[in-house]
Write a structure and sequence with these properties.
- By secondary structure, the chain is mainly α.
- It contains nine helices and no strands.
- It is globular, with a radius of gyration of 17 Å.
- The chain starts with a helix and ends in an 8-residue tail after the last helix.
Length: about 210
């Protein structure tokens, strides 16, 4: 249980990526007052949280309606998360999130690009479904995973509130380096998800089996 929750926390931390969200937040909140920045941070985290919890609760129901097994989804999700982690590691990830106008056009920056796709990233949306599979995890375990998700969203909110100080301390280079490290961790965890799914399908044998 503890190992599973630690894995869940690492996957959610890597896919939600608070540091990457800080870099996007700094870009979209440039020129705002302190109060406006706080409101923007709060709204973005709430919208992202509602989106992620919606996927956590309804994602498996939607898959069942489409006759997609969780094992198949786990393998597809693992491949996607690997590519997501590779993008974090090998490219300027935040430039892809921020978009060409950095959210300062007619869009609401709390929704795009902050809530989606910076915080509630495609990888995070996939992760919450895979990590709360009904046939594998008890209701208690799923509740604990949801608690981990809420805790990471709370951490993300604090990071956004402290964005100016964090960027002064880390610098853009330091922030980018942390994102690349998280990307490598996510890619490794994604490989584990794919291998586990293939074992469950009988394509591979479990170690020692």
């Amino acid at each position: 249980m503890v190992n599973d929750l630690l894995r869940d926390a690492l996957i959610l931390l890597s896919t939600i990526d608070p540091i990457g969200s800080v870099l996007v937040f700094v870009a979209v909140s440039e020129g705002m007052s302190g109060a406006a920045r706080r409101r923007l941070a709060g709204r973005a985290v709430v919208i992202a949280g509602l989106t992620l919890i919606g996927f956590l609760v309804l994602g498996q129901v939607a898959l069942a309606a489409m006759h997609v097994s969780l094992t198949s989804f786990q393998i597809a999700g693992g491949v996607f998360l690997f590519l997501f982690g590779a993008q974090m590691t090998l490219t300027d990830f935040t430039s892809h999130i921020a978009g060409p106008d950095d959210g300062r056009g007619s869009r609401d920056p709390a929704v795009f690009p902050l809530a989606i796709p910076a915080i509630a990233s495609p990888g995070a949306l996939l992760a919450v479904v895979v990590l709360t599979e009904n046939t594998r995890y008890s209701t208690a375990h799923q509740a604990l995973t949801a608690g981990v998700l809420v805790a990471i969203l709370g951490l993300t909110y604090l990071f956004l509130r402290w964005a100016t100080h964090l960027m002064r301390w880390l610098g853009r280079t330091g922030g980018s380096a942390l994102i690349k490290i998280l990307g490598m961790i996510l890619a490794a965890l994604a490989v584990e998800m794919v291998v586990e799914g293939l074992v469950r399908l009988g394509v591979l044998r479990a170690a020692g089996g």
